[in-house]
Automatic annotation (TrEMBL):
<protein>
    <submittedName>
        <fullName>Myosin-IIIb-like</fullName>
    </submittedName>
</protein>
<dbReference type="GO" id="GO:0004674">
    <property type="term" value="F:protein serine/threonine kinase activity"/>
</dbReference>
<dbReference type="InterPro" id="IPR052409">
    <property type="entry name" value="Myosin-III_kinase_activity"/>
</dbReference>
<feature type="binding site">
    <location>
        <begin position="104"/>
        <end position="111"/>
    </location>
    <ligand>
        <name>ATP</name>
    </ligand>
</feature>
<keyword id="KW-0547">Nucleotide-binding</keyword>
<feature type="domain" description="Myosin motor">
    <location>
        <begin position="7"/>
        <end position="224"/>
    </location>
</feature>
<dbReference type="InterPro" id="IPR027417">
    <property type="entry name" value="P-loop_NTPase"/>
</dbReference>
<dbReference type="GO" id="GO:0005524">
    <property type="term" value="F:ATP binding"/>
</dbReference>
<comment type="similarity">
    <text>Belongs to the TRAFAC class myosin-kinesin ATPase superfamily. Myosin family.</text>
</comment>
<dbReference type="GO" id="GO:0016459">
    <property type="term" value="C:myosin complex"/>
</dbReference>
<dbReference type="GO" id="GO:0000146">
    <property type="term" value="F:microfilament motor activity"/>
</dbReference>
<dbReference type="GO" id="GO:0030832">
    <property type="term" value="P:regulation of actin filament length"/>
</dbReference>
<keyword id="KW-0505">Motor protein</keyword>
<keyword id="KW-0677">Repeat</keyword>
<keyword id="KW-0963">Cytoplasm</keyword>
<keyword id="KW-0206">Cytoskeleton</keyword>
<dbReference type="InterPro" id="IPR036961">
    <property type="entry name" value="Kinesin_motor_dom_sf"/>
</dbReference>
Length: 224
């Protein structure tokens, strides 16, 4: 059933009536139009498009710099901009620490949303590309040891991440990533159709036959 608002509501909180049915209809309508982002007040809903959309590039990034929220369509870049401007103290009494919570079901796109958020914050701070790559590449290392294939997601995070970005005078100078709630039991046991952490498959794919013999490792099929 199509939404009577036609998927035009960038912020669901502005609708005259709001209930579960209206929310689902409007999100479905927007999704069919490739509008994967929708506000609910200060909350940004992101629906995984499961395809590549041309909305994460330099041109789009430039549109979300020191903007008024309603001036551009909802986007993760707008959240990054609002947080960064508050860190600088623009629009508020004084600079304030900011916290962005990214939550959702497995496969919802939390990991990718985090990458886009960090990338835009570094872009806003006019940080160097090397620093951005260093921060983002740490994610790849953590994913190797903490992500695994599940029935819902081929790259599911099996742990939580708390990322702190460090600023001096508005410039990003580094980041600290803390992990928590690692699913340690996956090392010894996985559900049907699921796999162990990626790092073990990387190991077998990268080791030569001689190295496998040296480490007394057999076929990957012998291990869980």
């Amino acid at each position: 059933m199509a939404s009577k608002f036609g998927g035009k509501a960038d912020d669901l909180a502005t609708l005259p009536k709001l209930d579960a049915q209206i929310i689902l209809q409007e999100l479905r309508q927007r999704y069919s139009q490739d509008k994967i982002y929708t506000y609910v007040g200060d909350i940004l809903i992101a629906v995984n498009p499961f395809k590549t959309l041309d909305i994460y590039n330099k041109k789009v990034s430039n549109k979300y710099k020191e903007i008024v929220k309603s001036s551009e369509p909802p986007h993760i870049y707008a959240v990054a901009d609002a947080a960064y401007q508050a860190v600088l103290g623009k629009g508020v009494a004084k600079p304030q620490h900011q916290c962005c919570v990214i939550s959702g079901e497995s496969g919802a796109g939390k990991t990718e949303s985090t990458k886009f958020l960090i990338s835009q914050i570094i872009e806003l701070s006019q940080g160097n590309t090397q620093l951005e790559q260093q921060i983002l590449q740490v994610n790849s290392l953590l994913e190797a040891f903490g992500n695994a294939q599940t029935v819902m997601n081929d790259n599911s995070s099996r742990f939580g991440k708390y990322i702190q970005i460090k600023f001096i005078n508005g410039s990003v100078i580094g980041a600290k990533i803390s992990e928590y709630l690692l699913e340690k039991s996956r090392v010894a046991m996985q559900n049907t159709g699921e796999e162990n952490f990626h790092i073990f498959y990387y190991m077998f794919a990268g080791l030569s036959q001689q190295e496998l013999q040296n480490y007394h490792l057999g076929s990957p099929n012998k291990y869980k």
